[in-house]
């Protein structure tokens, strides 16, 4: 059994989707980021960085893993699925996983902070982060023009990137001009395990659309977290 410490954010959903795809039994441990539960001594003993997600694998002597990308690699290697075992195939998957970890996630997280949560609207900063997000989306679109998935077969690289890309509207970015990215987004969204994963737990709001009262309320709560210095946990939240 695996304990998944998580919240309804893209990084949290990366792991719940993978667990659902792999059919691994797990227990959901939902943390309330607004209440700073991710900073509790109990959770810091699992993840010293005080961020979600993290897992504890009770089948492996209560082995703890933090950082969403590291968790995905661990689960893929544990099961021998969602990542090839040959050196080149494994490298391709990890390259696209790192593309998300080092690019898509951080840039969308910052776009969310300045577009949605920061009390002052600094347009050059918003333009900077939204522009970099769109550039990264174009990279994905160009690659997906000739590939069904990012790294051969469907893999943890697709899961990681998809969990963020699907929330593009929350970052103020449209992808109507990126047909290959849209095709890939929709194909992954149709997978039953993915549908289950994004409900474990559900986001407080629908991050794929915008403009209703719940979205405004969520943005206000996240803004308070930003002002308290917790912006990375307020992911489109940014985590």
TrEMBL record:
Keyword Transferase recorded: yes
Keywords assigned: Transferase
Residue ranges of domain GST N-terminal in the record: 1-83
Residue span(s) of domain GST C-terminal: 86-218
CDD domains: GST_N_Ure2p_like
Keyword Transferase set for record: yes
Gene Ontology molecular function: transferase activity
Cited InterPro entries: Glutathione-S-Trfase_C-like (IPR010987), Glutathione-S-Trfase_C_sf (IPR036282), Glutathione_S-Trfase (IPR040079), Glutathione_S-Trfase_N (IPR004045), GST_C (IPR004046), Thioredoxin-like_sf (IPR036249)
Coiled-coil stretches noted in the UniProt entry, renumbered to this chain: none
Cited SUPFAM superfamilies: GST C-terminal domain-like (SSF47616), Thioredoxin-like (SSF52833)
Domain of life of the native organism: Bacteria
Family, per entry: Belongs to the GST superfamily.
PANTHER family per record: DISULFIDE-BOND OXIDOREDUCTASE YGHU (PTHR44051:SF22), GLUTATHIONE S-TRANSFERASE-RELATED (PTHR44051)
Name of the protein in question: Glutathione S-transferase/GST-like protein
């Amino acid at each position: 059994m695996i304990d998944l410490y998580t919240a309804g954010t893209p990084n949290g959903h990366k792991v719940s989707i993978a667990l659902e795809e792999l059919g691994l039994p797990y227990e959901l441990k939902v943390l309330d980021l607004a209440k700073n539960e991710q900073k509790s001594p109990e959770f810091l003993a699992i993840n010293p960085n005080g961020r979600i997600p993290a897992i504890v694998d009770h089948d492996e002597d209560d082995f703890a893993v933090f950082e969403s990308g590291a968790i995905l690699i661990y689960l893929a290697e544990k099961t021998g699925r969602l990542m090839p075992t040959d050196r080149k195939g494994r490298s391709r998957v990890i390259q696209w996983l790192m593309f998300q970890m080092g690019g898509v996630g951080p840039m969308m997280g910052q776009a969310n902070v300045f577009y949605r949560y920061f009390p002052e609207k600094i347009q050059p900063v918003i333009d900077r982060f939204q522009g970099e997000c769109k550039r990264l989306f174009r990279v994905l679109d160009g690659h997906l023009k000739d590939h069904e998935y990012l790294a051969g077969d469907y893999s943890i690289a697709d899961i990681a990137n998809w969990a963020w890309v699907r929330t593009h509207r929350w970052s103020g970015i449209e992808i109507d001009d990126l047909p290959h990215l849209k095709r890939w987004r929709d194909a992954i969204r149709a997978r039953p395990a993915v549908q289950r994963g994004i409900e474990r737990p559900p986001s407080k709001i629908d991050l794929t659309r915008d403009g209703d009262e719940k979205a405004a309320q969520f943005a206000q709560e996240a803004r308070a977290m930003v002002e308290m210095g917790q912006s990375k946990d307020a992911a489109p939240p940014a985590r």
